[in-house]
Amino acid sequence: MLASGGSTVRRRCRPAAGTACDLCYNRASPPCFPGNSAPMTVRTRFAPSPTGYLHIGGARTALFSWLHARHHGGAFVLRIEDTDLERSTAESVNAILEGMTWLGLEYDEGPFYQTRRFDRYREVIQQLLDSGHAYRCYCSRERLERLRADQLARKEKPRYDGHCRHLERPPAPDAPYVVRFRNPLEGTVVVDDLVRGRVSFANAELDDLIIARSDGTPTYNLTVVVDDTDMGITHVIRGDDHLNNTPRQMNIMQALGLQPPAYAHVPMILGPDGKRFSKRHGAVSVMQFRDEGYLPEALINYLVRLGWSHGDQEVFSVDEMVELFDIRDVNKAASTFNPDKLLWLNQHYIKTSPPEHLERHLGYHLGRLGIDPAAGGPDILAVIRALQERSKTLVEMARQALFLYQDFDHYDEKAAKKHLRPAAVEALTRLRTGLAALPDWEAEAIHGVVVGVAEVLELKLGKVAQPLRVAVSGGPVSPPIDVTLELLGRERTLQRIDRALAYIAGT
RNA sequence: GUCCCCAUCGUCUAGACGGCCUAGGACACCACCCUUUCAAGGUGGCGACACGGGUUCGAAUCCCGUUGGGGACGCCA
Protein backbone atom coordinates (compact mmCIF):
# COMPACT_ATOMS: atom_id res chain seq x y z
CA MET A 1 0.00 0.00 0.00
CA LEU A 2 2.43 2.57 1.21
CA ALA A 3 5.63 1.48 -0.39
CA SER A 4 4.04 0.26 -3.54
CA GLY A 5 3.68 3.81 -4.64
CA GLY A 6 -0.09 3.91 -4.73
CA SER A 7 -1.66 7.29 -4.77
CA THR A 8 -2.07 8.99 -1.47
CA VAL A 9 -5.20 10.88 -0.72
CA ARG A 10 -4.76 14.55 -0.71
CA ARG A 11 -7.54 16.12 1.12
CA ARG A 12 -8.00 19.59 2.26
CA CYS A 13 -9.38 20.20 5.66
CA ARG A 14 -12.83 21.62 5.33
CA PRO A 15 -13.67 24.18 7.93
CA ALA A 16 -17.32 24.84 8.64
CA ALA A 17 -18.84 27.30 6.23
CA GLY A 18 -17.66 30.80 6.80
CA THR A 19 -15.02 29.90 9.34
CA ALA A 20 -11.33 29.51 9.00
CA CYS A 21 -9.35 26.45 9.71
CA ASP A 22 -6.92 28.26 11.92
CA LEU A 23 -4.10 26.01 10.79
CA CYS A 24 -4.61 26.68 7.14
CA TYR A 25 -3.09 30.08 6.86
CA ASN A 26 0.26 31.40 7.73
CA ARG A 27 0.09 33.93 10.48
CA ALA A 28 2.72 35.81 8.54
CA SER A 29 0.27 36.74 5.88
CA PRO A 30 -3.00 38.47 6.44
CA PRO A 31 -5.59 35.83 7.09
CA CYS A 32 -7.69 35.58 4.01
CA PHE A 33 -10.25 33.69 6.04
CA PRO A 34 -12.99 34.00 6.91
CA GLY A 35 -14.33 35.85 4.02
CA ASN A 36 -13.31 34.99 0.56
CA SER A 37 -10.44 33.41 -1.22
CA ALA A 38 -8.60 30.22 -0.49
CA PRO A 39 -6.43 29.94 2.57
CA MET A 40 -2.69 29.88 2.14
CA THR A 41 -1.44 26.38 1.71
CA VAL A 42 0.19 24.68 4.58
CA ARG A 43 3.87 24.02 4.06
CA THR A 44 5.84 21.82 6.37
CA ARG A 45 9.36 20.51 6.23
CA PHE A 46 11.62 17.82 7.49
CA ALA A 47 15.13 19.07 8.06
CA PRO A 48 17.55 16.38 9.13
CA SER A 49 21.26 16.88 9.44
CA PRO A 50 23.08 14.21 7.45
CA THR A 51 25.24 12.83 10.20
CA GLY A 52 23.82 9.32 10.27
CA TYR A 53 20.95 7.19 9.12
CA LEU A 54 17.26 7.98 9.45
CA HIS A 55 16.36 6.88 12.94
CA ILE A 56 13.04 6.16 14.58
CA GLY A 57 12.69 9.55 16.21
CA GLY A 58 13.43 11.42 13.03
CA ALA A 59 11.11 9.17 11.09
CA ARG A 60 8.22 9.95 13.39
CA THR A 61 8.87 13.66 13.23
CA ALA A 62 8.95 13.38 9.46
CA LEU A 63 5.73 11.37 9.54
CA PHE A 64 3.90 13.95 11.64
CA SER A 65 5.15 16.71 9.43
CA TRP A 66 4.15 14.81 6.30
CA LEU A 67 0.72 13.97 7.70
CA HIS A 68 0.10 17.56 8.64
CA ALA A 69 0.91 18.69 5.13
CA ARG A 70 -1.15 15.96 3.51
CA HIS A 71 -4.11 16.46 5.79
CA HIS A 72 -4.29 20.11 4.88
CA GLY A 73 -3.56 19.55 1.23
CA GLY A 74 -0.25 21.35 1.58
CA ALA A 75 3.33 20.75 0.63
CA PHE A 76 6.04 18.82 2.39
CA VAL A 77 9.59 19.95 1.77
CA LEU A 78 12.83 18.18 2.51
CA ARG A 79 15.84 20.19 3.55
CA ILE A 80 19.26 18.84 4.35
CA GLU A 81 20.94 20.77 7.14
CA ASP A 82 24.53 20.14 6.29
CA THR A 83 26.21 23.27 7.54
CA ASP A 84 28.37 21.19 9.82
CA LEU A 85 30.94 20.37 7.18
CA GLU A 86 32.87 18.16 9.55
CA ARG A 87 30.15 15.66 10.21
CA SER A 88 27.86 15.79 7.21
CA THR A 89 28.31 13.03 4.67
CA ALA A 90 26.82 12.11 1.34
CA GLU A 91 26.24 8.57 2.57
CA SER A 92 24.03 9.91 5.32
CA VAL A 93 22.02 11.89 2.83
CA ASN A 94 21.49 8.74 0.82
CA ALA A 95 20.59 6.75 3.89
CA ILE A 96 17.99 9.32 4.89
CA LEU A 97 16.49 9.48 1.42
CA GLU A 98 16.39 5.71 1.25
CA GLY A 99 14.62 5.54 4.60
CA MET A 100 12.02 8.07 3.61
CA THR A 101 11.37 6.35 0.33
CA TRP A 102 10.95 3.01 2.04
CA LEU A 103 8.48 4.52 4.47
CA GLY A 104 6.60 6.20 1.65
CA LEU A 105 7.12 9.72 2.97
CA GLU A 106 7.45 11.38 -0.38
CA TYR A 107 8.35 15.04 -0.44
CA ASP A 108 7.03 17.66 -2.80
CA GLU A 109 10.05 19.91 -2.87
CA GLY A 110 13.71 19.45 -2.28
CA PRO A 111 15.97 18.15 -1.09
CA PHE A 112 17.43 21.59 -0.55
CA TYR A 113 20.97 21.69 0.73
CA GLN A 114 22.03 24.43 3.08
CA THR A 115 25.59 24.25 1.87
CA ARG A 116 24.33 25.55 -1.45
CA ARG A 117 22.80 28.58 0.18
CA PHE A 118 25.81 30.10 1.93
CA ASP A 119 25.60 33.29 -0.10
CA ARG A 120 22.11 33.86 1.10
CA TYR A 121 23.06 33.32 4.75
CA ARG A 122 26.02 35.65 4.39
CA GLU A 123 23.69 38.28 3.06
CA VAL A 124 21.38 37.95 6.07
CA ILE A 125 24.28 37.97 8.51
CA GLN A 126 25.52 41.17 6.93
CA GLN A 127 22.05 42.64 7.16
CA LEU A 128 21.98 41.84 10.86
CA LEU A 129 25.41 43.34 11.32
CA ASP A 130 24.41 46.49 9.47
CA SER A 131 21.28 46.97 11.49
CA GLY A 132 23.13 46.49 14.75
CA HIS A 133 21.31 43.28 15.60
CA ALA A 134 24.55 41.37 15.43
CA TYR A 135 28.12 42.10 16.33
CA ARG A 136 31.57 40.67 15.91
CA CYS A 137 32.98 38.80 18.85
CA TYR A 138 36.71 38.36 19.19
CA CYS A 139 36.73 36.29 22.34
CA SER A 140 39.13 33.40 22.19
CA ARG A 141 37.97 29.88 22.70
CA GLU A 142 40.13 29.81 25.79
CA ARG A 143 38.32 32.74 27.30
CA LEU A 144 34.99 31.17 26.46
CA GLU A 145 36.03 27.92 28.07
CA ARG A 146 37.20 29.66 31.19
CA LEU A 147 33.99 31.66 31.37
CA ARG A 148 31.98 28.52 31.09
CA ALA A 149 33.98 26.68 33.73
CA ASP A 150 33.63 29.58 36.15
CA GLN A 151 29.90 29.82 35.64
CA LEU A 152 29.46 26.13 36.15
CA ALA A 153 31.54 26.31 39.32
CA ARG A 154 29.25 29.07 40.54
CA LYS A 155 26.28 26.84 39.66
CA GLU A 156 25.10 29.25 37.04
CA LYS A 157 23.74 28.55 33.63
CA PRO A 158 26.71 28.77 31.26
CA ARG A 159 26.26 31.54 28.73
CA TYR A 160 28.15 34.23 26.90
CA ASP A 161 28.71 37.32 29.01
CA GLY A 162 28.45 39.91 26.26
CA HIS A 163 32.12 40.80 26.47
CA CYS A 164 32.31 42.04 22.88
CA ARG A 165 28.82 43.45 22.76
CA HIS A 166 29.93 47.07 22.83
CA LEU A 167 33.38 46.79 21.35
CA GLU A 168 34.21 49.88 19.31
CA ARG A 169 36.92 48.34 17.17
CA PRO A 170 38.70 45.03 16.69
CA PRO A 171 41.53 44.26 19.09
CA ALA A 172 43.77 43.82 16.07
CA PRO A 173 43.08 44.68 12.44
CA ASP A 174 43.00 41.08 11.33
CA ALA A 175 41.79 39.47 14.54
CA PRO A 176 39.55 36.45 13.91
CA TYR A 177 35.97 36.80 14.99
CA VAL A 178 32.60 35.12 15.08
CA VAL A 179 29.33 36.94 14.62
CA ARG A 180 26.88 36.92 17.48
CA PHE A 181 23.24 37.83 17.48
CA ARG A 182 22.44 40.65 19.85
CA ASN A 183 19.67 39.09 21.86
CA PRO A 184 17.29 41.46 23.64
CA LEU A 185 18.15 41.81 27.32
CA GLU A 186 14.67 42.26 28.61
CA GLY A 187 11.19 41.08 28.03
CA THR A 188 9.86 37.62 27.35
CA VAL A 189 9.33 35.57 24.26
CA VAL A 190 6.09 33.66 24.07
CA VAL A 191 5.83 30.55 21.94
CA ASP A 192 2.31 29.46 21.19
CA ASP A 193 3.10 25.90 20.46
CA LEU A 194 0.53 23.73 18.72
CA VAL A 195 1.26 20.81 20.98
CA ARG A 196 2.80 22.40 24.05
CA GLY A 197 0.48 25.30 24.41
CA ARG A 198 1.85 28.64 25.56
CA VAL A 199 5.46 28.58 26.70
CA SER A 200 7.34 31.68 27.72
CA PHE A 201 11.02 32.41 28.06
CA ALA A 202 12.70 35.39 29.68
CA ASN A 203 15.14 37.09 27.36
CA ALA A 204 17.41 37.46 30.35
CA GLU A 205 17.90 33.71 30.20
CA LEU A 206 19.11 33.81 26.63
CA ASP A 207 22.59 34.79 25.57
CA ASP A 208 24.07 36.13 22.38
CA LEU A 209 24.38 33.09 20.19
CA ILE A 210 26.88 32.66 17.43
CA ILE A 211 25.35 32.96 13.99
CA ALA A 212 28.57 32.82 11.98
CA ARG A 213 31.67 30.84 12.82
CA SER A 214 35.14 32.29 12.53
CA ASP A 215 35.44 30.70 9.11
CA GLY A 216 32.37 32.64 8.05
CA THR A 217 30.00 29.68 7.82
CA PRO A 218 26.54 30.14 9.32
CA THR A 219 25.21 28.14 12.22
CA TYR A 220 21.99 26.30 12.74
CA ASN A 221 19.88 28.92 14.48
CA LEU A 222 20.50 31.37 11.68
CA THR A 223 20.02 28.99 8.80
CA VAL A 224 16.71 27.60 10.04
CA VAL A 225 15.28 31.03 10.35
CA VAL A 226 16.39 32.05 6.88
CA ASP A 227 15.31 28.81 5.26
CA ASP A 228 11.97 28.44 6.95
CA THR A 229 11.19 31.94 5.82
CA ASP A 230 12.55 31.62 2.29
CA MET A 231 10.85 28.31 1.78
CA GLY A 232 7.54 29.63 3.01
CA ILE A 233 7.25 27.12 5.82
CA THR A 234 4.01 27.75 7.66
CA HIS A 235 4.35 25.05 10.32
CA VAL A 236 7.57 24.01 11.90
CA ILE A 237 7.06 20.53 13.30
CA ARG A 238 10.14 19.21 15.00
CA GLY A 239 11.47 17.39 18.03
CA ASP A 240 11.01 18.60 21.52
CA ASP A 241 14.73 19.14 21.88
CA HIS A 242 14.32 22.27 19.78
CA LEU A 243 11.80 23.97 22.02
CA ASN A 244 14.55 25.84 23.82
CA ASN A 245 15.92 27.14 20.53
CA THR A 246 12.61 28.57 19.49
CA PRO A 247 12.74 31.84 21.42
CA ARG A 248 16.18 32.57 20.00
CA GLN A 249 14.96 31.93 16.50
CA MET A 250 11.92 34.07 17.07
CA ASN A 251 14.14 36.89 18.25
CA ILE A 252 16.23 36.63 15.12
CA MET A 253 13.09 36.71 13.03
CA GLN A 254 11.91 39.76 14.82
CA ALA A 255 15.23 41.49 14.22
CA LEU A 256 14.80 40.67 10.56
CA GLY A 257 11.26 41.97 10.54
CA LEU A 258 9.82 38.54 9.87
CA GLN A 259 6.74 36.92 11.29
CA PRO A 260 7.48 33.52 12.79
CA PRO A 261 5.74 30.38 11.52
CA ALA A 262 3.55 28.24 13.74
CA TYR A 263 5.47 25.79 15.87
CA ALA A 264 4.71 22.29 17.02
CA HIS A 265 7.24 20.50 19.17
CA VAL A 266 6.61 16.81 19.32
CA PRO A 267 7.75 14.78 22.30
CA MET A 268 10.79 12.57 22.22
CA ILE A 269 10.82 8.82 21.96
CA LEU A 270 12.53 7.13 24.86
CA GLY A 271 14.17 3.75 25.19
CA PRO A 272 12.94 1.13 27.67
CA ASP A 273 15.24 2.61 30.30
CA GLY A 274 13.56 5.98 30.05
CA LYS A 275 16.54 7.55 28.34
CA ARG A 276 16.38 9.11 24.97
CA PHE A 277 16.06 6.41 22.36
CA SER A 278 19.40 5.56 20.87
CA LYS A 279 21.56 2.92 19.30
CA ARG A 280 22.15 1.02 22.48
CA HIS A 281 18.45 0.23 22.68
CA GLY A 282 18.71 -1.96 19.61
CA ALA A 283 17.40 -1.14 16.20
CA VAL A 284 17.08 2.57 15.63
CA SER A 285 17.69 2.90 11.96
CA VAL A 286 14.61 2.67 9.82
CA MET A 287 16.44 0.50 7.32
CA GLN A 288 17.41 -1.88 10.06
CA PHE A 289 13.74 -2.52 10.62
CA ARG A 290 13.36 -3.38 6.98
CA ASP A 291 16.22 -5.82 7.24
CA GLU A 292 14.71 -7.39 10.31
CA GLY A 293 11.58 -8.17 8.37
CA TYR A 294 9.22 -5.33 9.15
CA LEU A 295 6.72 -3.95 6.69
CA PRO A 296 6.89 -0.18 6.21
CA GLU A 297 3.18 0.16 6.89
CA ALA A 298 3.64 -1.57 10.24
CA LEU A 299 6.40 0.80 11.26
CA ILE A 300 4.41 3.80 10.12
CA ASN A 301 1.35 2.59 11.99
CA TYR A 302 3.39 1.97 15.12
CA LEU A 303 5.03 5.37 14.88
CA VAL A 304 1.82 7.30 14.38
CA ARG A 305 0.38 5.80 17.55
CA LEU A 306 3.35 6.93 19.56
CA GLY A 307 2.09 10.22 20.89
CA TRP A 308 -1.04 10.36 18.82
CA SER A 309 -4.30 8.47 18.94
CA HIS A 310 -7.80 8.49 17.67
CA GLY A 311 -10.03 6.97 20.32
CA ASP A 312 -9.37 3.28 20.72
CA GLN A 313 -8.30 2.68 17.16
CA GLU A 314 -5.01 0.84 16.79
CA VAL A 315 -4.76 0.07 13.11
CA PHE A 316 -4.68 2.88 10.59
CA SER A 317 -4.15 2.81 6.89
CA VAL A 318 -2.13 5.70 5.58
CA ASP A 319 -5.25 7.22 4.08
CA GLU A 320 -6.98 7.07 7.43
CA MET A 321 -4.05 8.72 9.12
CA VAL A 322 -4.07 11.52 6.60
CA GLU A 323 -7.77 11.94 7.14
CA LEU A 324 -7.73 11.87 10.92
CA PHE A 325 -4.40 13.36 11.89
CA ASP A 326 -4.45 16.67 13.69
CA ILE A 327 -1.18 17.97 15.05
CA ARG A 328 -3.06 19.45 17.98
CA ASP A 329 -4.00 15.97 19.15
CA VAL A 330 -0.39 15.01 19.68
CA ASN A 331 0.52 14.27 23.30
CA LYS A 332 2.89 16.36 25.31
CA ALA A 333 4.57 13.55 27.16
CA ALA A 334 7.46 11.53 25.81
CA SER A 335 6.72 7.93 25.01
CA THR A 336 8.67 4.74 25.30
CA PHE A 337 9.45 2.62 22.30
CA ASN A 338 7.82 -0.79 22.66
CA PRO A 339 9.21 -3.42 20.29
CA ASP A 340 6.52 -5.94 21.23
CA LYS A 341 3.74 -3.78 19.96
CA LEU A 342 5.57 -3.04 16.75
CA LEU A 343 6.00 -6.77 16.29
CA TRP A 344 2.31 -7.32 16.86
CA LEU A 345 1.43 -4.72 14.25
CA ASN A 346 3.88 -6.25 11.84
CA GLN A 347 2.28 -9.62 12.33
CA HIS A 348 -1.11 -8.04 11.86
CA TYR A 349 -0.11 -6.55 8.53
CA ILE A 350 1.55 -9.76 7.38
CA LYS A 351 -1.56 -11.69 8.32
CA THR A 352 -3.99 -9.37 6.63
CA SER A 353 -2.13 -8.19 3.55
CA PRO A 354 -2.98 -9.65 0.17
CA PRO A 355 -0.26 -12.18 -0.76
CA GLU A 356 0.46 -10.15 -3.87
CA HIS A 357 1.50 -7.25 -1.67
CA LEU A 358 3.81 -9.42 0.40
CA GLU A 359 5.41 -11.01 -2.65
CA ARG A 360 7.95 -8.29 -3.29
CA HIS A 361 8.86 -7.97 0.37
CA LEU A 362 9.28 -11.70 0.88
CA GLY A 363 11.21 -11.91 -2.36
CA TYR A 364 13.68 -9.42 -0.93
CA HIS A 365 14.25 -11.51 2.16
CA LEU A 366 14.43 -14.79 0.29
CA GLY A 367 17.01 -13.14 -1.91
CA ARG A 368 19.08 -12.32 1.13
CA LEU A 369 19.03 -16.03 1.95
CA GLY A 370 20.19 -16.87 -1.54
CA ILE A 371 16.85 -18.06 -2.86
CA ASP A 372 15.28 -16.94 -6.08
CA PRO A 373 11.67 -18.09 -5.93
CA ALA A 374 11.27 -17.47 -9.63
CA ALA A 375 13.95 -20.06 -10.37
CA GLY A 376 11.78 -23.01 -9.38
CA GLY A 377 10.00 -24.49 -6.43
CA PRO A 378 6.50 -23.75 -5.25
CA ASP A 379 4.49 -20.73 -6.25
CA ILE A 380 5.48 -17.92 -3.95
CA LEU A 381 1.90 -16.73 -3.52
CA ALA A 382 0.85 -20.16 -2.30
CA VAL A 383 3.80 -20.17 0.07
CA ILE A 384 2.77 -16.79 1.43
CA ARG A 385 -0.79 -17.95 1.95
CA ALA A 386 0.47 -20.91 3.94
CA LEU A 387 2.88 -18.87 6.00
CA GLN A 388 1.31 -15.50 6.57
CA GLU A 389 -0.68 -16.60 9.56
CA ARG A 390 2.36 -17.88 11.36
CA SER A 391 5.01 -15.26 10.73
CA LYS A 392 5.69 -12.24 12.85
CA THR A 393 8.31 -10.91 10.47
CA LEU A 394 9.28 -11.38 6.86
CA VAL A 395 12.62 -12.74 7.95
CA GLU A 396 10.78 -15.42 9.87
CA MET A 397 8.60 -16.12 6.87
CA ALA A 398 11.60 -16.44 4.59
CA ARG A 399 13.29 -18.84 6.98
CA GLN A 400 10.18 -20.94 7.23
CA ALA A 401 9.93 -21.06 3.47
CA LEU A 402 13.50 -22.16 3.02
CA PHE A 403 12.91 -25.93 3.10
CA LEU A 404 10.36 -25.59 0.31
CA TYR A 405 12.99 -24.22 -2.03
CA GLN A 406 16.10 -26.05 -1.04
CA ASP A 407 17.13 -29.19 0.80
CA PHE A 408 18.09 -28.81 4.42
CA ASP A 409 21.39 -30.28 5.48
CA HIS A 410 20.41 -31.66 8.84
CA TYR A 411 17.44 -32.34 11.02
CA ASP A 412 16.56 -30.30 14.03
CA GLU A 413 18.22 -32.37 16.72
CA LYS A 414 15.42 -32.50 19.24
CA ALA A 415 12.77 -33.08 16.64
CA ALA A 416 14.68 -35.90 15.01
CA LYS A 417 15.31 -37.55 18.33
CA LYS A 418 11.67 -37.41 19.21
CA HIS A 419 10.03 -38.29 15.93
CA LEU A 420 12.49 -40.02 13.64
CA ARG A 421 12.66 -43.23 15.59
CA PRO A 422 12.09 -46.87 14.63
CA ALA A 423 8.56 -46.49 15.92
CA ALA A 424 7.87 -44.13 13.04
CA VAL A 425 9.12 -46.43 10.32
CA GLU A 426 5.85 -48.16 9.77
CA ALA A 427 3.89 -44.94 9.50
CA LEU A 428 6.43 -43.33 7.19
CA THR A 429 6.54 -46.39 4.97
CA ARG A 430 2.78 -46.54 4.64
CA LEU A 431 2.63 -42.80 4.03
CA ARG A 432 5.16 -43.16 1.27
CA THR A 433 3.19 -45.86 -0.42
CA GLY A 434 -0.07 -44.02 -0.10
CA LEU A 435 1.34 -40.74 -1.29
CA ALA A 436 3.15 -42.30 -4.22
CA ALA A 437 -0.11 -43.81 -5.38
CA LEU A 438 -2.13 -40.62 -5.19
CA PRO A 439 -3.65 -39.69 -8.56
CA ASP A 440 -3.79 -35.96 -7.76
CA TRP A 441 -1.21 -34.15 -5.69
CA GLU A 442 -3.28 -31.74 -3.70
CA ALA A 443 -3.90 -31.04 -0.04
CA GLU A 444 -7.25 -32.70 0.39
CA ALA A 445 -6.13 -35.99 -1.06
CA ILE A 446 -2.89 -35.85 0.91
CA HIS A 447 -4.90 -35.24 4.03
CA GLY A 448 -6.88 -38.37 3.26
CA VAL A 449 -3.72 -40.46 3.11
CA VAL A 450 -2.41 -39.12 6.41
CA VAL A 451 -5.71 -39.72 8.17
CA GLY A 452 -5.95 -43.15 6.60
CA VAL A 453 -2.55 -44.22 7.88
CA ALA A 454 -3.37 -42.95 11.35
CA GLU A 455 -6.57 -44.97 11.37
CA VAL A 456 -5.02 -48.17 10.15
CA LEU A 457 -2.26 -47.98 12.73
CA GLU A 458 -4.69 -46.76 15.39
CA LEU A 459 -2.54 -43.78 16.09
CA LYS A 460 -3.47 -40.22 16.89
CA LEU A 461 -3.01 -37.94 13.94
CA GLY A 462 -0.10 -36.19 15.60
CA LYS A 463 1.83 -39.43 15.83
CA VAL A 464 1.74 -39.73 12.07
CA ALA A 465 1.89 -36.11 11.03
CA GLN A 466 4.79 -35.12 13.22
CA PRO A 467 7.34 -37.68 11.95
CA LEU A 468 6.26 -36.81 8.45
CA ARG A 469 6.71 -33.12 9.17
CA VAL A 470 10.20 -33.62 10.51
CA ALA A 471 11.02 -35.85 7.56
CA VAL A 472 10.04 -33.30 4.94
CA SER A 473 10.87 -30.01 6.65
CA GLY A 474 13.73 -31.00 8.89
CA GLY A 475 12.07 -29.47 11.92
CA PRO A 476 9.01 -29.63 14.14
CA VAL A 477 7.21 -26.61 12.71
CA SER A 478 5.54 -26.07 9.37
CA PRO A 479 2.16 -25.18 7.93
CA PRO A 480 -0.51 -27.91 8.13
CA ILE A 481 1.09 -31.10 6.88
CA ASP A 482 -1.16 -31.56 3.86
CA VAL A 483 -0.54 -28.01 2.70
CA THR A 484 3.15 -28.44 3.34
CA LEU A 485 3.33 -31.55 1.19
CA GLU A 486 1.34 -30.01 -1.59
CA LEU A 487 3.73 -27.06 -1.69
CA LEU A 488 6.77 -29.27 -1.55
CA GLY A 489 5.64 -31.46 -4.43
CA ARG A 490 5.45 -35.21 -4.72
CA GLU A 491 8.95 -35.82 -5.89
CA ARG A 492 10.65 -33.98 -3.06
CA THR A 493 8.25 -35.39 -0.52
CA LEU A 494 9.02 -38.97 -1.47
CA GLN A 495 12.75 -38.29 -1.57
CA ARG A 496 12.67 -36.81 1.87
CA ILE A 497 10.65 -39.66 3.31
CA ASP A 498 13.27 -42.04 1.92
CA ARG A 499 15.98 -39.92 3.43
CA ALA A 500 14.25 -40.03 6.81
CA LEU A 501 13.84 -43.78 6.62
CA ALA A 502 17.52 -44.12 5.85
CA TYR A 503 18.34 -41.79 8.71
CA ILE A 504 16.33 -43.91 11.16
CA ALA A 505 17.96 -47.07 9.90
CA GLY A 506 21.35 -45.47 10.45
CA THR A 507 20.80 -44.39 14.03
C1' G B 1 23.49 23.86 38.74
C1' U B 2 20.11 27.24 35.77
C1' C B 3 16.02 27.50 32.41
C1' C B 4 12.03 24.92 29.75
C1' C B 5 8.78 20.84 29.58
C1' C B 6 6.20 16.40 31.22
C1' A B 7 3.40 13.00 34.77
C1' U B 8 -3.52 7.42 33.86
C1' C B 9 -2.15 -0.18 34.06
C1' G B 10 4.95 -2.92 32.85
C1' U B 11 4.28 -0.24 27.66
C1' C B 12 1.18 2.77 23.95
C1' U B 13 -3.08 5.24 25.17
C1' A B 14 -9.00 6.68 25.91
C1' G B 15 -10.63 10.29 29.24
C1' A B 16 -14.71 17.45 25.15
C1' C B 17 -18.34 21.08 29.60
C1' G B 18 -15.34 18.53 36.65
C1' G B 19 -20.37 14.10 37.65
C1' C B 20 -21.81 9.03 32.08
C1' C B 21 -15.06 6.36 35.45
C1' U B 22 -16.80 0.78 40.89
C1' A B 23 -11.24 4.62 34.92
C1' G B 24 -12.17 2.05 28.70
C1' G B 25 -9.06 -0.14 24.55
C1' A B 26 -4.41 -2.25 22.63
C1' C B 27 0.54 -4.73 23.41
C1' A B 28 2.82 -7.91 26.91
C1' C B 29 1.76 -11.53 30.72
C1' C B 30 -1.41 -15.67 33.00
C1' A B 31 -5.50 -19.35 32.56
C1' C B 32 -8.97 -22.00 29.78
C1' C B 33 -11.12 -23.37 24.86
C1' C B 34 -9.97 -24.79 19.80
C1' U B 35 -6.03 -27.78 17.53
C1' U B 36 -2.24 -32.09 13.11
C1' U B 37 3.15 -29.06 14.84
C1' C B 38 3.81 -23.77 15.18
C1' A B 39 0.74 -20.02 14.86
C1' A B 40 -3.84 -17.70 14.36
C1' G B 41 -8.58 -17.35 16.71
C1' G B 42 -12.15 -17.39 21.05
C1' U B 43 -13.21 -16.60 26.38
C1' G B 44 -11.65 -14.89 30.97
C1' G B 45 -7.94 -12.82 34.33
C1' C B 46 -3.95 -9.63 36.21
C1' G B 47 -3.09 -4.46 36.10
C1' A B 48 -2.96 2.63 36.60
C1' C B 49 -5.28 8.20 37.79
C1' A B 50 3.00 9.76 41.33
C1' C B 51 2.33 12.22 46.27
C1' G B 52 0.35 16.26 49.40
C1' G B 53 -2.68 20.27 49.87
C1' G B 54 -6.60 23.19 48.12
C1' U B 55 -11.30 24.86 44.93
C1' U B 56 -16.18 22.26 44.59
C1' C B 57 -22.17 19.22 46.57
C1' G B 58 -18.69 16.35 43.46
C1' A B 59 -11.76 16.04 40.50
C1' A B 60 -8.04 11.42 36.72
C1' U B 61 -10.03 15.98 34.90
C1' C B 62 -9.12 23.03 37.75
C1' C B 63 -5.13 25.63 41.15
C1' C B 64 -0.63 25.35 44.27
C1' G B 65 3.39 22.63 46.14
C1' U B 66 6.47 18.16 46.45
C1' U B 67 8.65 14.15 44.14
C1' G B 68 10.11 11.77 39.84
C1' G B 69 11.46 11.95 34.67
C1' G B 70 12.97 14.31 30.07
C1' G B 71 15.13 18.35 27.27
C1' A B 72 18.28 22.68 26.62
C1' C B 73 22.46 25.32 28.21
C1' G B 74 28.65 24.13 21.65
C1' C B 75 32.41 28.29 16.58
C1' C B 76 26.43 20.42 16.69
C1' A B 77 21.99 20.41 14.53
Give me a quick take on this structure.
With 507 residues, this protein is mainly α. The chain has 19 helices and twelve strands. The chain has helices at residues 56-71, 90-103, 118-130, 141-153, 220-230, 246-255, 286-291, 296-304, 318-324, 339-352, 355-368, 380-387, 394-405, 413-419, 422-437, 443-456, 461-473, 481-488, 490-506; strands at residues 43-46, 75-80, 109-113, 134-137, 178-181, 188-193, 197-202, 210-212, 235-239, 262-266, 269-270, 335-336.
Protein described:
The protein has 507 residues and is mainly alpha-helical. It contains 19 helices and twelve strands. It has helices spanning 56-71, 90-103, 118-130, 141-153, 220-230, 246-255, 286-291, 296-304, 318-324, 339-352, 355-368, 380-387, 394-405, 413-419, 422-437, 443-456, 461-473, 481-488, 490-506, and strands spanning 43-46, 75-80, 109-113, 134-137, 178-181, 188-193, 197-202, 210-212, 235-239, 262-266, 269-270, 335-336. The strands form five sheets. A three-stranded parallel beta sheet has the order 1-2-3, with helices on one face. A hairpin with a 3-residue loop joins strand 6 (188-193) and strand 7. Helix 11 crosses helix 12 (380-387) and helix 15 (422-437) packs across helix 16. The longest helix has 17 residues, at 490-506. It is elongated. The two termini are 51 Å apart. Mean pLDDT is 90; it is low at 1-20 and 22-38. The structure holds one RNA strand of 77 nucleotides.
